[in-house]
Specification:
595 residues, alpha/beta, 3-stranded antiparallel sheet, 28% helix
């Protein structure tokens, strides 16, 4: 409360026009009080009144007979001219627009019961928050911007939240347990695929009774078209969790399995993919038509260990790994004579989505190339964005809608190799794939969720100035020279807490080439090294043969029916339940089973 010593206005008026008994004039002195004063926070006037006894025309201290402090009223609004420096500022006005958009979305939600006809789940493998931030800056800088103000396509989505990534038995997770959580709605252990935590990893017999049902399986039963796209091997943990049940993520083909698991009747992951339709029909006594789109790498797990079965871009003398003599690509083609099997860019380009019933595409012996290394592929590979577009064009031929999972699998691999260049470029490509999906689908009937299975020990550090190359060395505000650490050497903005450490491979676009050298411990003088090249691998603090995952939460971004449920911090398995709520997968599958 303001402290006021109020003198009667009547007295002030009387004194101002009179002299005292000795004839000395009465003076009134007003002093402005500045805004922010302890007594008058909004300013005011300090008034002193008294007789000028000494006749000097001033009111001396001993001549003051009365004084008062009059505070200006507290303002509850600002004048237009006072607001000009705010309302005319782009940061302010842009944020105001965002608030208005959010309010409009909230109002629309109250009257909308729209359900998702289609669902697309994008997973950036290893795409933690620091990866998203750094990729955002890189993408902006590639467009000639300073970078920090840029937004990746999925960052423009209206709803977002966080997912806690730990596995049931692990503080820092792996892709098998995390993707199983997203695909089934149930958290599970490290290293197992499509099964609950009652499993014992590596124990074939413990699979029975622990099998979970995935969103893709529910969509199949419900009559929707389904698809899986990945830049990793299609039998790798993340894509495999959508269709397989395995006591070990490493059982990608029969040669990876122990003899006792084979004897006990467990089926390898590649075989489960090709046999998806009969396996699911036998499990639920239901008629389905199988997965319509499968695109990724991992051809070696589908071919016999016999050089006679090598593809024309085989990287090994014997491409196939299977020790049971089965050619699963031939078995798939026999099961789906109207389907299209492709293994190169030419085959991909020849696919006409309007007349293609289903696609089985295996573009590499192992993982597909990094986005920046694609041009070096012998037979050619499509980009993740191109595969996403083609998948949607094939899947949307079904009036019942579709369910599609798209994984940018090589973000994770580049991080493991300690190569931020490829990790960020593959993240930018994921954003391109998301943009393609946003443009190809109707947001009123398609739920799109973008997230990651886990993060990495990848950091953005130092005090670089705005617009500093994100792959460069730290240069401070007001400087044109790299900042030196306490050891007298420059350092990069991006780095890793652990891993294989520094490599300077120049224009090498294959991040995996970094594994060929020795583990580098300690600091390296980067003064003469261009850290923005494709072959530069950042320094690491703790020497390990491969950089590790991290345990913090990851972002979840969403648009479309049900997207408003993506908010706050949730367990990772919550993502399945958002999808199910939006698309009614369980109820539609149950209705189909009931018939």
């Amino acid at each position: 409360m303001n402290k006021l010593n109020i003198l009667s206005l009547a007295v002030v008026a009387a004194l101002a026009g009179c002299s005292d008994d000795d004839g000395a004039p009465t003076l009134t002195v007003n002093t402005d009080i500045a805004v922010g004063d302890s007594q008058c926070i909004n300013g005011g006037v300090y008034t002193q009144v008294g007789a000028d006894d000494n006749g000097n025309g001033e009111l001396d201290g001993d001549e003051v007979a009365a004084q008062t402090t009059n505070c200006n009223p507290i303002k509850t609004t600002l004048d237009d001219d006072e607001l000009a420096n705010l309302t005319g500022n782009a940061w302010f006005s842009d944020a105001q627009d965002k608030v208005a958009q959010a309010q409009q979305r909230a109002e629309q939600l109250s009257s909308s019961n729209q359900k998702a006809k289609n669902v697309i789940l994008f997973v950036g493998d290893g795409m933690g928050i620091s990866t998203v931030t750094a990729a955002r800056i890189l993408a902006g800088q590639l467009q000639g911007k300073m970078g920090e103000e840029h937004q990746l396509s999925f960052e423009t989505m209206p709803y977002s939240g966080f997912a806690k990534t730990y596995n049931v038995d692990a503080q820092t997770p792996d892709s098998a347990g995390t993707m199983t959580a997203m695909a089934t709605g149930v958290k599970t252990d490290v290293g197992v695929i499509g099964v609950a935590e009652g499993i014992a990893r590596g124990d074939c017999e413990s699979v029975s009774g622990n099998e979970l049902v995935t969103a893709l399986e529910l969509a199949e039963i419900a009559g929707k078209s389904t698809g899986i796209v990945s830049t990793a091997r299609i039998t790798h943990a993340t894509p495999a969790a959508t269709y397989a049940k395995s006591a070990d993520r490493n059982w990608e083909d029969i040669s990876d399995m122990p003899a006792d698991a084979v004897a006990a009747g467990c089926e390898d992951i590649a075989s489960q993919l090709v046999n998806f339709e009969p396996n699911l029909e036998a499990r639920f006594d239901v008629d389905i038509d199988g997965i319509e789109v499968v695109m990724g790498g991992g051809r070696r797990h589908f071919l016999p260990k016999d050089a006679a079965f090598n593809s024309n871009d085989a990287q090994s003398s014997t491409e196939g790994d299977r020790t049971d003599g089965r050619d699963l690509t031939a078995q798939w083609q026999a099961a789906y004579p109207n389907g299209t099997y492709v293994m190169d860019q030419a085959g991909f380009d020849a696919i006409d989505p309007a007349s293609t019933e289903r696609i089985f595409a295996l573009f590499n012996e192992s993982h597909m190339q990094y986005e920046q290394d694609r041009s070096n592929d012998i037979a050619g590979e499509p980009s993740l964005a191109a595969m996403t577009e083609k998948a949607i064009d094939v899947l949307d031929n079904n009036d019942e809608g579709f369910f599609l999972t798209v994984e940018a699998g090589r973000i994770d691999h580049a991080h493991h190799a300690g190569n931020a260049y490829n990790a960020l470029h593959d993240t930018v490509e994921l954003a391109e794939a998301v943009q393609a999906a946003m443009e190809k689908t109707n947001k009123d009937e398609t739920l799109i969720i973008v997230t990651a299975d886990h993060s990495h020990v990848f950091t953005i550090a130092g005090y670089p100035k705005r617009g500093n190359p994100i792959l460069g060395k730290v240069v401070a505000v007001g400087s044109d020279e790299p900042t030196l650490a306490a050891d007298g050497m420059p350092y990069t903005t991006l780095g890793y807490t652990n891993g294989n450490g520094f490599k300077n491979l120049g224009a090498q676009t294959n991040a995996d080439a970094g594994y060929n050298g020795e583990i580098v411990t300690g600091r390296v003088d980067l003064s003469t090294i261009d850290t923005t090249t494709a072959g530069f691998h950042q320094e690491a603090l703790v020497p390990l043969s491969s950089e590790t995952h991290a345990g913090e939460d990851v972002g979840v971004y969403a648009q479309g029916p049900g997207a408003h449920l993506v908010t706050g911090t949730n367990e990772q398995n919550y993502i399945f339940h958002v999808i199910n709520h939006a698309a009614d997968l369980v109820s539609k599958a149950e209705a189909k089973l009931g018939n």
